[in-house]
Backbone:
């Protein structure tokens, strides 16, 4: 793609701002300053702008450790969104959260501008497991575990089988491969149990990076991008 388009997309600046940056001599391709805005660049080129490494991958994949009080949406008049808390230099155009966590749920949110990838990891047909740790107001019985595992009837809907493992006391691990509104809270509610806290700890084979504090994020590695969709 053209250098000015890449810079504008990845730095979230206008095409004319990208052109000005290139003409100022602040953009380097493979170690040499480049002043040509229409220079063609590809995935094998190493590019910096204003001293910052610019990814040449067509798409962006970000892992965020979502804090409470932030919603998974691309914009809101009233609420703070996951896009609002992204560092400015990661906030490229077209990013959206692949799947939603509730406002009070914390943990792994994947932000991308790759619609096909998002569809692949969210479609229940692909059985990409999302793992959560839930703190409950009371312990789980064997009856609850077998209802989760058998594919529970929730309202009119027959859910896909889910795994429920007791970690300690009222803390459990839940694995689901679909994303129905408030799914985990409603699954427990059916059994008279309230979820007091919920955290997503993994998507597919990729674990939330525990080095990320709440509200922090980082790019997924190429390996993680490949791993996330692999059969578990
Ligand atoms: N299930 C819920 O109830 N809430 C979430 O945020 C995710 C799964």
Residues:
């Amino acid at each position: 793609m053209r250098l000015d388009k890449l810079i504008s997309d990845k730095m979230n600046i206008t095409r004319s701002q990208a052109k000005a940056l290139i003409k100022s001599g602040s953009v380097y391709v493979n170690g040499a300053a480049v002043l040509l805005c229409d220079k063609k660049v590809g995935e094998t080129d190493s590019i910096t702008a204003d001293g910052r490494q610019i990814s040449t991958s067509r798409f962006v994949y970000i892992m965020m450790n979502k804090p409470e009080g932030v919603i998974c949406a691309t914009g809101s008049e009233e609420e703070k969104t996951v896009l609002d808390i992204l560092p400015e230099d990661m906030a490229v155009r077209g990013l959206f959260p692949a799947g939603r966590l509730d406002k009070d749920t914390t943990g792994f949110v994947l932000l991308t501008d790759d619609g096909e990838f998002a569809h692949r990891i969210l479609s229940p047909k692909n059985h990409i497991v999302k793992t959560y740790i839930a703190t409950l107001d009371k312990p789980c019985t064997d009856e609850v575990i077998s209802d989760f595992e058998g594919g529970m009837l929730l309202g009119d809907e027959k859910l896909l089988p889910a795994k429920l493992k007791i970690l300690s006391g009222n803390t459990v691990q839940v694995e689901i491969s679909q994303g129905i509104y408030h799914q985990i809270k409603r699954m427990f509610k059916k059994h008279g149990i309230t979820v007091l806290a919920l955290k997503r700890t993994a998507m597919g084979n990729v674990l939330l990076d525990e080095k990320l504090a709440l509200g922090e994020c980082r790019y997924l590695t190429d390996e993680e991008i490949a791993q996330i969709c692999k059969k578990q």
